[in-house]
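User: ok so my PI wants both of these folded by tonight, can you help

Assistant: No problem, let's get them done. Here's the first:
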Amino acid sequence: MDKLLIQPLIAVLVSSLIAARSYRRKSLNLSGAIAGFAVMTIHIAVGYRYGALLLMFFFTSSKLTKVGEDKKRSVDADFKEGGQRNWVQVLSNSGIASILVLILWAKSGLQEKCLDSNDSVLVTALVGGVIGHYACSNGDTWSSELGVLSDAQPRLITTLKPVRKGTNGGVTKAGLLAAAAAGSLIGLTFVVIGFLTTKCAHDVALKQLLVIPISTLAGLGGSVIDSLLGATLQFSGFCTVRNKIVGKPGPTVEQISGLNFLDNNAVNVVSILLTTILTSIACVYVF
């Protein structure tokens, strides 16, 4: 059977199984499972590397969401068992990459390309953007999910003053280290799958290893950008009735930081977009 037929069939099969499993385990609600199926199918059908990046982000983030649920329930006013991400959350964390992957399909078909500006600046920029996208998404999620479990008091990134756990823009050393580790895992995934699926000249193949430090910086940088946006353009307040941090003003809410301009999904989209652009430029420069 031709690759043009086999790879999309594999994509549909794998995506349907994962979406159904995620729905049963409450990682995704029904709308999230449908959206997840769509974006997973696109990624895997166009290139196994892109599917691997999405799945590495999804599986590790879903697993970390379920770690320390009792502690997170006591802090997060919007806590949902298992995460139960909806279609908005799925697309805010994978929509930009899906667009880039579709452009790559239009440009190169199902032929996976190496990061090599001498061969194609556009393809290198697009692939670098996908790497930056998931390094940022993974970094932000790891930072949030592990940072809130840290015993250290978070500090607002703009002032370095101590704030309550769950405050948007609050950072800890553990959270920042987690973001860097999450980014490096995305880079490592890209390199390992790339060696198995992509044919590169020897010198170009070795140069692909530079993806790991680039994605590490993208994970850390994306988390910092997210925190800066959260501290300034996203509202954080303390509800004296619920005794929890909330993201919207109210009569019983004491403001901690930020403007009521962006919600969490919008912050994710903006931070991902900026990190995607910066990583894309870095990859064109380095490769």
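One down. Here's the second:
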Amino acid sequence: MKILTADQTHQADQATIREEKITSEVLMERAATAFTDWLTARQSPAEAGEIMVLCGPGNNGGDGLVAARRLHERGYRVQVGLLPASKHSDDFTINRQRLPAAVPVTDLAAGLPSIQPNALVLDALFGTGLSRPLDGAAAAIVQQLNAAQARVIAIDIPSGLLADAPQPADSAVVRARHTVSFELPKLAFLLPQNAEYVGHWHLLPIGLSREFIEETDAAMHFVDATMLAGWLPERPKFAHKGTYGHALLLAGSHGKIGAAVLATKACLHSGAGLLTVRVPGIGYDILQISAPEAMTLTDPATDFITELPDLKPYSAIGIGPGLGKEKSTKDVLVKLLREAQAPLVIDADALNLLGENRELLAQLPADSILTPHPKEFERLTQPARDDYHRLELLRTFCQQYRCYTVLKGAYTCLGAPEGTLYFNSTGNAGMATGGSGDVLTGVITALRAQHLSPLHAAVLGVYAHGRAGDLAAQETGEAGLLAGDIVRFLGPAFREVTTRTEF
């Protein structure tokens, strides 16, 4: 699913109008009616109480006016607040004239009328066309609304929030409990710094031009199951373990063998045909007991890895979970970067070693996959000013080092060497727990061992990892979720996205 810019979204509207030979007012009616259907399916007139609809002078205000009319027709008690303006859009004017006389209208020139806590307010002041922070009366009204502690639902986007860029820290932005947008997600919805404004966001289809969306180049994508169709084919009857590659994991150190176990189990549950795990001597018994399906190679050292094994047998190599940062271990990483012919997946302490020795980044083999969390990423690059700047750093880093970088978090973002960003749609807050990243390393290593491209392995791996977490949370709840629970549900997660042979 593509993530379009605000300008591209406007172009999609215009393309739809041309193709269907309709007016912009008809498209507005379609969008606002879809919103009304969404709201009335969730709130009865009695539950909603009196609904205040705040409308600005542009097309977002027009959406609000249509929603107010539709709600009134369905028996809801509605009142409208109009932001004073010297100029209104044509579609706003049309729908202002259509608003039934029975719907009370308040001029907001004197500010926001008294709103009871927990009252339902629809925010239709400003939409994606906004290009600068709010000021004057509009900013004052937003500040009053936020102070009222109402149940706010934003139509399309919270007023004051820019769709594609950050706003100054002191900007007035509506804090919505829910944001209901149309057709495609907006970048602003996916970034942590905007969570307090967006709340829970929802997408409603309104029939925007499929042809325009498919033909438009997008620098960002939102990954869902539809996008992954065909990436993981059904296994043929006469496949054997050699068909699905031989993975190598370099992991573990004294006190951190658990990380190696989690990565190992995840790799096994993600379809690798064979798996060898290189651990320090202290990890041998643990690995043999906890994961008998894997082969275990022990390092001559007891507590950390000091030597690199022969790399010829392996079709993908993962390094980092629980690895530690001993000098001998760093030397192993240096040698791996220099000698590896198989694709690499680099995580955890291996990333920290790279961050402490940035000259090694120049030795990264092309198409390596790195899996940092934000702090690890900063060690590889620099502190980010905000979430938008972090995405710029991600693009630059991936282009400079010809690598794929999985920036972990809510809506985990994969950066690709050509500058494209892929935001993940699966996962939950219960996955913010120790070992979850080790599981992801095992998943992606297994997919690379099966000869998936770096893009497909990273995107599919992140999606399946998050989906397994979602399935696990249904059983355990988010607070009770452990990294091992994610491993247990990897099989069902992959089953959901496996392409089956049809008649």
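The chain has two domains: 6-217, 227-233+243-498. The mean pLDDT is 97. Good luck tonight!
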